[in-house]
Amino acid sequence: MNRASRIWLFVGVLLLLVLLESARVYFIMPFPGSQLGLNEPESSGLGRVKLAYWLHHNAGWLRIIGLLILVYPAYQLVAKPSRAWHRYVVVGLLLIYGGVFYMINREMMADQMFLQPIHKRVVPMSQNQIPLDKLVLGFESVGQATAYPIQLIGYHHQVRDTVGGQPIMVTYCTVCRTGRVFSPLVDGQADEFRLVGMDHFNAMFEDKRTGTWWRQATGEAVIGPLRGKAVAELTARQMTLREWAKEYPNTRVLQADSTFAEEFKGMKNYERGLSKGSLTRRDSASWKPKSWVIGVERAGFAKAYDWNQLQKKRILNDVLGGAPILLTLASDSVSFGVWSRRLGVKTLTFHYANRRLTDQETGSIWTWRGQCIDGALKGQKLSSIPQAHQEFWHSWRSFHPNTTKAN
Questions:
Q1: In terms of domains, do 260 and 327 share one?
Q2: pLDDT in tens, 27-57
Q3: Same domain, yes or no, for 137 and 261?
Q4: Rounded alpha-carbon distances, angstroms, from residue 346 to 27, 121, 280, 341
Q5: What residue ranges of the chain have pLDDT lower than 70?
Q6: What is the DSSP string of 45-83?
Q7: Is residue 267 located within the same domain as residue 142?
Q8: 153 and 45 co-located in one domain
Q9: Running DSSP on this structure, what letter comes out for residue 106?
Q10: Model-level pTM greater than 0.70?
């Protein structure tokens, strides 16, 4: 092999190593052209997520082969250079590759950008320091309730906890505005998960036991040995901490880890839709990709309700999958609920006027929580619809391709 061939071999293999590292992060992070909508066809051959998964699990031996190939031309160009600057070019290029390797694997990988709490504190309301107007995901089990501020879990992406003796995994994807609580049990075994990137603009987690990748919005296994399975979603509700604490006065509240003060500061305006990032800011108009909707799923049927319409009317009566439902908004205009309008054998129709929610059939007065506080039905309570989430329209539409839009 002549000197020119050694130079081209060295440069070519080094370039391939750089492309290997870049591809590992490109296909699972929100770079231009890297993410597909759910209904877009995959390109021929390996799909993008499949390619990313293959690279992720085979990068080690690919690096070793590449570096072994580099040894001979690098030695020749450094030890026996025809020109003195050859050795400086070789060393410089190797340093560049080292820099790329470090940046991608230590700075740009999802689990390096969004870290887990180091000092996790979950305290009673008497010790709480989270403002009451902050949005939270609330979860209750066996009489114990806990609130997880979106400002915090939106940065962490997931927080593990135990509520009422039940292990849970509280997750959030800011690009989809999807808050979900899952059981971390996979095939009956508790597992650990790490944030690995995203698919169709939704966060993906990798389980430690099998290396399977899981979609955050649905809990489904996207690719890997457990593909096609799903972790169980648990019922969580989104509202302000003030409203959650009214319902559960003895609630615990996740506190901010001071280690991530700057990161939390950057999330301060997200929950109200005022984020400056193109991927996380809200479209104020209706039915735009980043418009807010409430997505409701029941008995295999899915429907999206315009957040602007709910804010205007305060309540929405509808029928989904043959079941009459009610959407309500609290006086704070950010806490919401979704309920069944069936009460025993009756189907109620609701009206909102003069800041009062009443049913047409008896004239009884109700709260936004589906509780009757006055009238013939006093003491009655509507059943909640658990599969109801506020999220971006592009997200709900992507992961519920058969969804309909409420009029």
A1: no
A2: 888 887 777 654 554 443 347 888 899 999 9
A3: yes
A4: 52, 45, 42, 8
A5: 1, 3, 36-46, 81-82
A6: SS-HHHHHHHHHHHHHHHHHHHHHHHHHHHHHHHHS-SS
A7: yes
A8: no
A9: I
A10: yes
